[in-house]
Specification:
- The complex is a heterodimer.
- By secondary structure, chain A is α+β, with helices and mostly antiparallel strands.
- Chain A has one helix and seven strands, in the order H-E-E-E-E-E-E-E.
- In chain A, about 25% of the residues lie in helices and about 50% in strands.
- Chain B is α+β, with helices and mostly antiparallel strands.
- In chain B, about 15% of the residues lie in helices and about 50% in strands.
- The chains are: A alpha+beta, B alpha+beta.
C-alpha cells in the first residue's frame, strides 16, 4: 500500500480500531444478554413505552416502544437494567420534538444503563437521508455507534457531485 | 471513479426524518416488502446503495467502515466494488475523505477503472488511485480504445489534468498502439 495511504489509515489502525474492538466486545455482551433474556421472557407486557433519556426540559429524548416487552432488573446487580422487546421502535428526538433518528427491529435487548442494545434479527435505522439495515446489529445511543455483522445495506439520498468517473 | 467514490459521502447527511423517500425505503427495509422491493424503492427514490458483510458507523469519531464484499451501486450511473471502504467525517458530519482498499473496481456507462486502493479528498476535489504492492498497476480507461495505467493515477474533479506515475498510456488499443512514459 502506498506510504501516504498507509499513513492516512494509521489513525484507523492505531486508535479507532481499538475503540471498534472494545465496542465489538460490548456487542458480544449484549448478544449473550439477548439470548438469556429471550429465554426468560415468559411474561412480557404488551404495548409498552419505556422512556430511556430525557432532555433538560423534561421532554423525552430517547424512548422504546414495543408490542411486547419485559424488564430484567436485579437488586443485587446495578448493572443489570435490561429491556427485552419484540416489535420495537426506538426514537430519538431533539429538544424541539422533531424525530432525529428511528430504529425498528424485530426483537432486541436494550441496556438502559449504557443506552445500547443488540438486535438479533433485522434492524432498520433511519437517520436523515440514510436508511441502514442489517442482521445482528449492535447500536449505542451514548457512543453514537451502529455495527452490523451480516447483510449490511445502506441506502442514501441521491447527490449530484458531477465530475464523471 | 470520482463520482463513485464521492457518492459514499451521502452517508454523512443528517437531519430530521421528514423525507418521504426515506419512509418508502425504510418500509421496504423493514421487510414489509421483499429484498427486490427494497432495491426498487431505493432505485425509485434514486438513492445510492452500499452493501457489505459488516458495517460500522461511528458518528462520534467520524468514521464509517464497510468490510467484506463491499459494493456501491448507483443504478446505471456507476458501480464500485472493494474489500473495504472507509468514510471519514469532520465537523457536523461533513465528509472529509473516502478510502477504498482491496480489489477496487469501478464502472459506469462509459468508463472503467481498477486499482488496489483509492482515496478521494473532498475539499481538494482530488482522487488518487494506487496500484498494489504486488506490482499491479492502477488502470483508468475512458473508452474502448483509450487507457492509462500507472502506479499512481491522480486527477481532479474540476479539471482535465491527470497525473500518472509509472505510466503506460494506450491510445487506440485495437490498433495495438501503446506509449510507455
Amino acid at each position: 500500500m502506498n506510504v501516504l495511504l498507509a499513513a492516512l489509515l494509521a489513525f484507523v489502525s492505531a486508535e479507532w480500531s481499538g475503540r471498534r474492538e472494545m465496542l465489538t466486545r460490548e456487542a458480544e455482551r449484549l448478544q449473550i444478554a439477548y439470548t438469556n433474556c429471550a429465554a426468560q421472557a415468559t411474561e412480557p407486557a404488551e404495548g409498552v413505552v419505556v422512556p430511556v433519556e430525557v432532555n433538560q426540559d423534561g421532554s423525552v429524548k430517547l424512548s422504546i416502544e414495543a408490542k411486547k416487552a419485559q424488564l430484567f432488573l436485579d437488586r443485587n446487580d446495578k448493572n443489570k437494567n435490561l429491556v427485552w422487546a419484540e416489535g420495537v421502535v426506538i426514537r430519538k428526538t431533539g429538544p424541539d420534538g422533531a424525530e432525529m433518528s428511528r430504529i425498528e427491529a424485530d426483537s432486541c435487548v436494550f441496556d438502559r444503563n449504557t443506552k445500547s442494545g443488540w438486535a438479533d434479527g433485522t434492524l432498520t435505522m433511519t437517520h436523515g437521508g440514510t436508511v441502514f439495515t442489517g442482521h445482528g446489529v449492535y447500536f449505542s445511543s451514548m457512543e453514537d455507534y451502529v455495527m452490523s455483522f451480516s447483510g449490511s445495506s445502506i441506502y442514501s439520498k441521491d447527490l449530484k457531485f458531477g465530475g464523471g468517473l | 471513479m470520482t463520482a463513485a467514490v464521492v457518492m459514499l459521502a451521502v452517508l454523512l447527511l443528517r437531519g430530521p426524518v421528514d423525507d418521504a423517500a426515506a419512509g418508502a425505503v425504510a418500509v421496504a427495509a423493514r421487510g414489509e416488502e421483499s429484498v427486490g422491493g427494497l432495491a426498487a424503492a431505493a432505485a425509485k427514490a434514486k438513492w445510492a446503495r452500499i452493501t457489505s458483510v459488516r458495517a460500522d458507523f461511528d458518528r462520534n469519531e467520524g468514521v464509517a467502515l464497510f468490510e467484506g464484499s463491499v459494493t456501491v451501486d448507483y443504478g446505471d450511473a456507476y458501480k464500485m466494488c472493494a474489500d473495504k471502504v472507509y468514510v471519514f467525517f469532520k465537523g457536523s458530519n461533513e465528509f472529509d475523505r473516502v478510502v477504498a482498499t482491496g480489489g477496487v473496481a469501478v464502472t459506469n456507462e462509459t468508463r472503467t477503472g481498477s486499482c488496489d486502493s483509492v482515496i478521494f479528498r473532498r475539499r481538494e476535489g482530488e482522487v488518487e488511485m494506487y496500484g498494489g504492492d504486488n506490482g499491479a498497476l492502477a488502470r483508468l480507461s475512458n473508452s474502448e480504445t483509450d487507457e492509462v495505467t500507472g502506479r499512481r493515477i491522480k486527477f481532479w474533479l474540476d479539471a482535465e489534468q491527470v497525473e500518472v506515475s509509472g505510466a503506460e498510456v494506450k491510445i487506440g488499443r485495437e490498433k495495438g498502439k501503446a506509449v510507455s512514459l
